[in-house]
Write a structure and sequence with these properties.
Number of strands: 21
InterPro entries: Tdp1 (IPR010347)
Number of helices: 19
Mean pLDDT: 76
Subcellular location: Nucleus
Oligomer: single chain
Low-confidence stretches: 1-10, 15-19, 29-45, 51-67, 80-120, 135-148, 152-188, 194-206, 562-579
Keywords: DNA damage, DNA repair, Exonuclease, Hydrolase, Nuclease, Nucleus
Distance between the termini: 58 Å
Shape: globular
Structural class: alpha+beta
Biased composition (Basic and acidic residues): 33-50
Pfam families: Tyr-DNA_phospho (PF06087)
Amino acid sequence: MTKKLQGSSLSWQETCTSFMLFSRALALSVREAYKPSKTSDRKPEPKEIIEIPSSDEEDNNEDVQLQSDVQRAIEASKAQSASSSRTYSPQDSISPTISPPAISAPSMLVRSSNAFPFDRAQLERERLERQKRLRPDLVEAQSKPQLDNEDEETDENVNMNGRSAKRQRLSHNSSTAYHSNVPSSSTRPTTGKAPRATTSGTQSKEPADAYFWNGELRQTANKYVEPSKDTRPLFRLTDILAPRDEISFAIISAYCVDFPWMYSFFNPSTPVIIVAQDSQGNETMKEVLPNWIKTTPFLRGGRGCMHMKIFYKTGRLRVVVSTANLLPIDWRDIENSVWVQDVPLRPRPIPHESKANDFPAAWTRILHSLNVAPALITMVKNGHTDLPISRLEDLRRKWDFSKVKIHLVPSLAGKHEGWPKVLQSGHVALMKAVRDSGARTPKGKELVLECQGSSIGTYSTQWVNEFYCSARGDSAEEWLDQPKSRRTKLPYPPIKILFPSDKTVKESALGEQGGGTMFCRRSQWEGAKFPRTLFHDSRSKSGGVLMHSKMIIATFRDTGPSSKGKAPQSDSETEPESDDEVVEVDAQGREEDKVIGWAYVGSHNFTPSAWGTLSGSGFNPILNNTNFELGIVFPLRSAEELERVACWERPPRKYVLGKDEPWMQSESAYFAEE
């Protein structure tokens, strides 16, 4: 081994040593090149690195790994230089066949020192494909996401993260194709560069670059939908985040996030700000993946909300409000609701108006409250100087929201005092949205609510009537001016609480294991004053799938002798027909002003934590919200539109007391502690 190489003064051993030193230097150079640019006089931002797991078999030989890293760096550099001319392929937006296990925010892992920093998500997908072929047993064991309760009303979240992998045993095999769907009579997407009217009625597959200039509400595609009932247009996450090569920047938020899985939907070079939750409820900001910043608002004991804002290189802005978490299970195994609207860029920016109170102004307030503004500044300091916005106020200045007809309804965690602040959050914001939609309950009419959700609250007649007052569009001032002694003794109003019965969950496509996102406690159900007579079974129109959708359908009906004061108290399996008779209201004498009610879709469950509780007086109201939530409200103008929007079978079947009980995850043997 000491023999001199021909034409060289170096020995073989010296040559090998020199090559290894050169390889290490090259790897360090490439690693340094992909670090965000930082000024020398600025302290580095804290980093919370998401580790994408690797198998022990692939890390045994450090020298082999180093050489492999060097080769991948060279290939990555070549790919990066050619990316600008790359043609988009539909395959780019297909989710991985096998997904890494979900990582909740409190349990982030630190990347090992020899982990290569460039595009680990792609490397992980390749490794998992090999592992799938060689060790399918390991794939099955690793593919078990964990979820938390989205509402503090139950205690499930206290020990959810501590449970074993048995918590969710749903398969991550996403190879089963969704069935094609026939578009409904709602607006279909367009593919042009500018908004135009659209029609429907023919079966077609959505193009990857479908635009929704007039807004679109759909359910999510589901692996277990009954083919005979698969007749509506649906959303997949790849439909929403497409074409991914055209995305220049994104702001996303969810209650629960699988970071490696979500990372795979974006190009590694795309800057992303993701709003999540800190395990201690503190306001934080960390770099968690290459070009990704995780920001958390102050949220003591509360929960987060679901929304996205996606900026495209063409200037288009896509706004998304969803009931789904950013987890594979929410986009494949259970049903959710998603609203999407594309917004065009203005020809030129308009001046900033600090007192504006329209849709984009509401978005700006929400993003400020979620601690997005500091993350945006950090993103720019990290070298992303070409972002489509430099400050949140640019949303209203640069984009034309004139085609957006829905109304935002946020809940902002915290204490809000005084009418200007109270009107911007919770069920009081719902009251304002109902009024602004022209859907306030007319005099002489009664409002019937159907409230679909995945988590049950602790209810009192006072809170339910407080919410009902706002849902009617009536002033909260009138409610607060009533004596408290009277408010606490009111009967329950005509509200139907939709929640899957124990039988419905067990007979669903996934059985008990599919009930991991539904929460109700025995102590709630058996409470002395709990409104058991308001409960109705939640059954999806798609068949034997469970719904994670949060939706409220509100309709008007004539006030009759049988509908005064409170909801029917019978234990029969079906409601009286009069309960479902919808009354059309023509407030202004114009066809476009005719309404039969309104609909809400968003992250709010029907709970006090989500919608808030009122106190104080009509002169100085106080609203307390535990959670951050976000949803939309729009008027319903016909019975046909109502049936298109509602995602459950109507009329819902009423619980038979003594026979029906709600699904209680904590009592399921499947979710029992090991």
